[in-house]
Please model this.
Amino acid sequence: MQTSFNGQQLIFRVANIEDNNYPYADYRAPDKEITLRVRDKFSRHTLIGINQFGTQMFQQFPDILGIRTADYMYSDGVPGLLTAQSSSYKLARQESAKVEVTSLKQTETNLEATVHVENLAGHSLPSGVAFRRAFISFEALDESGEVVWASGLTNSAGAILRGTTEEVLPTEFFYDPATRKQVFQPHYEVITDEGQVQIYEELMADTTGKITTSFVGLDKHIKSNRLLPKGWREDGPLAEFTRPHGDAERDPEYINPNGSTGSDTIIYRIPLNERTRTAVSVRAVLYYQAIPPYYLRDRFTIGKGPETKRLAYLTSHLTVQRTPVEDWKLLLTCAARKLGDGESASCEQ
Model:
């Protein structure tokens, strides 16, 4: 996060809902009660989050959601919703995460790439409610740019697929019909199969052990491998509420007793065959979803009231094409590397 501007240390007041610098409004508290002390050694933080899905709904359905397109507390001509979307998008693309392909080599049996993901936020990523998630879409490409192996591709609804097929992974809705068991994607150190996907998320179960998104049903952690902030320690303040759960606890690249590096490293070890042997480059993209498919499934199958009907209308009529959330996912950062190249390079999609 930004700590200086033009070589000068930035100074701030603490985060607040209202202070004496805000535009005057009826029933505002007296200035002496909302005048805050200026402090230094703080970093600038955009308190808008990266829920581009929500800002798109606000823009496209302001009447349904009761959102003003122009705020009376701002001067004429200030497009509040567009400003919010722009600020949120900048935060997502420039200040949330960084990904690199730190190595790429081909052996007699495998194509092996090492992907390093770094959290740039001052808190866990994703943060907030547990159903938010970030995931890595990894592709191996041939000379023509065709994908010959993949992990983490999605369909147009944002559901993660098996490799380059149109088959939605059973882990997307936590149920495998073949085994009739609950399934999910664990935290990986090494990925070798197109059905394995590195998803940074928090999964909670109810008292029966079933994964749930209901706030009133949360009972215990099934998984938590959200990217830790730099410096997080197991003996740090309130660590019992922010600590990882599951396989991430045993990943030395993820958790460090001397303080988290705020990063994670994954090795993609792709078995060579007639198709994958043609790969000459790889691409790794970190995507974010504020409302993944399984969350919406839960809302539509559990809720029966007008709120559910309203959400169904919003999501079914929301235009995501040619927006930052096309295919129901938000691109945070992207990196590519060619066989024989010396370094990782940023990329755009």
Summary: Helices lie at 31-34, 52-60, 62-65, 80-94, 239-242, 293-302, 306-317. Residues 1-45 form one domain. The longest strand covers residues 97-106.
